[in-house]
């Protein structure tokens, strides 16, 4: 089971109510996120799209120019171009961005999303063969959100007189592919890289219709930035903060139908709605069927088709949820049946759908807090997904056993690989042994990061409104989190259908009452009584009830002390 989390207070300064200056607290929070200079603070608090540039994101200008020249040549010569994407939200949105841009510029262009089971991740030899078979006279392939480790596929394309331009953000392998050019940075999501390329294309080709070019496609970039869990700092924060505004008023009828199907108010779409409601629906098609339908939803201009596709995505997502739940329960039982919990969880089963093993691995990390690999065993070839814990680079770890793998790719926190089925046991033995050395106790201790200690008297609407200006919150820019000690419990109630949530009421020294909610923590609070003293870790939120809005703490953890 999940260990007790270690509380790590980043800034040791205790902020007391009588001394609280909101801007000083904001500066503490920003400093905790590595934002210290006056210029950095100004840019964070007042982000502008003009700050995002080729230089700021770290893309090689020579490679970008080479790519732009080749694309313009293809357009002028009416050469067939294929935008080769990926089946997750990042790949789908990035494909839509580049395909729509090229089409508007007059290119002979088609989008292509590989089938997860039949072709696997990214540009593959089979994928190139399928593209050649389906679309004759291909001269140029542009990858989106993939390609940086596709050496064999690009060699195959080169032999068939097809140029390949890579646009990607994944970790570079030992050897760069011999592509025509490479537009790459790890500082953005894949759709962000595609957006940079499309913006530069449009600025260089004068016959494009002008309609706020700088804002076009940012609704899609916002979806990908959240869904792909890139850090919400720097350029990503700017793209997301601006992109959310456009997503909330998007004119894409497919997205509008999806919002309606999911019962989302477009005006209230934020990081949570993207990550937990919209992205799972867009991802579901690529997990179980074909991601082309998700791409069609984003690009269609037919209202009836948009409605049909939105319903299909939601239905497929419900199927995905059931499959994930069943596989997760099975995987967790497999872990619990092990005599000793190893530093690395490695679970193999032939019944697991390839499209959900990453989700299952993520659930194992949540439950047991260990790097986790889940393998969908095939007859001859098997696919695996891995998820990691904070501070442990899972893709580097997996690549230490590269000689046993067909291929591997991904990020420090999430990765995947393909392996010959007969080598699985050997790989498991090698990685479990390696994990005993590489995975430390520190890696296996979940840490709850806390910005600073705060006096409950300091909490006010003014403070809450100031904290909201630091949003959007997510990876790399977590919601400001505080600890308060020796808090007096004036009331405690167990709520929810199964009474597994807690509703607290706290009383400050100045007799101020503050309410709080703690989800799924009832088991931890059975001994707490009225007038008990506890230490609490929390974020500050608003609670709407019966038309009234009041401040409320969202408890992330608590530690019972003594009765009053």
Q: What key attributes describe this structure?
A:
564 residues, alpha/beta, OB fold (Dihydrolipoamide Acetyltransferase, E2P), inorganic pyrophosphatase (n-terminal core), Diaminopimelate Epimerase, Chain A, domain 1, 5-stranded mixed beta barrel, 5-stranded parallel sheet, globular
SSE layout and pairing:
Blueprint: E1 6-9, E2 14-15, H1 22-32, H2 38-45, H3 54-57, H4 61-76, E3 80-84, H5 89-104, E4 108-112, H6 125-134, E5 138-143, H7 151-159, E6 163-168, E7 181-184, H8 190-204, H9 218-227, H10 234-248, H11 253-261, H12 271-288, H13 292-299, H14 303-336, E8 345-349, H15 357-368, E9 372-376, E10 381-387, H16 394-399, E11 407-410, E12 414-420, H17 424-438, E13 447-450, E14 452-454, H18 461-468, E15 482-495, E16 501-507, E17 513-518, E18 532-545, E19 548-563
Parallel strand pairs: 1-13, 2-14, 3-4, 3-5, 5-6, 6-7, 8-9, 14-15, 17-19
Antiparallel strand pairs: 9-10, 10-12, 11-12, 15-16, 15-18, 16-17, 18-19
Can you tell me about this structure?
The protein is of the alpha/beta class. The protein has three domains: 158 residues, OB fold (Dihydrolipoamide Acetyltransferase, E2P) (Beta Barrel); 162 residues, inorganic pyrophosphatase (n-terminal core); 101 residues, Diaminopimelate Epimerase, Chain A, domain 1 (Roll). It is 40% helix and 22% strand. It is built from 18 helices and 19 strands. The protein has a five-stranded mixed beta barrel. Strands 4-3-5-6-7 form a five-stranded parallel sheet, with helices on both faces. Strands 8-9-10-12-11 form a five-stranded mixed sheet, sandwiched between helices. α5 links the parallel β3 and β4. The protein is globular, with a radius of gyration of 25 Å.
